[in-house]
Amino acid sequence: MIESHYVYVLRCGDGTLYTGYTTDVERRLRDHRAGRGAKYTRGRGPLEVVHVETYASRSAAMSREYAIKQLTRTGKERLVE
């Protein structure tokens, strides 16, 4: 079985954007909503997935995650439009 790797962007309840990496977007969203995700997302609900990209390798996905995190707020907003 070939595992897919995902980069995702969440919109938090306070309007901020959070970018992360996972192999299962739905499970990761459940983790975030249950307070088991990133410290940043705790207390910032409700959380909504607004962007997902799929990659064949972990390294490609993590490189893209880093690139997205380097974008300005405006750049991230353009990405999720």
Automatic annotation (TrEMBL):
InterPro entries: GIY-YIG_endonuc, GIY-YIG_endonuc_sf, UPF0213_domain
Residue span, GIY-YIG domain: 3-78
Domain of life assignment: Archaea
Protein's name in the database: GIY-YIG nuclease family protein
SUPFAM superfamilies for this protein: GIY-YIG endonuclease (SSF82771)
One Pfam family it belongs to: GIY-YIG
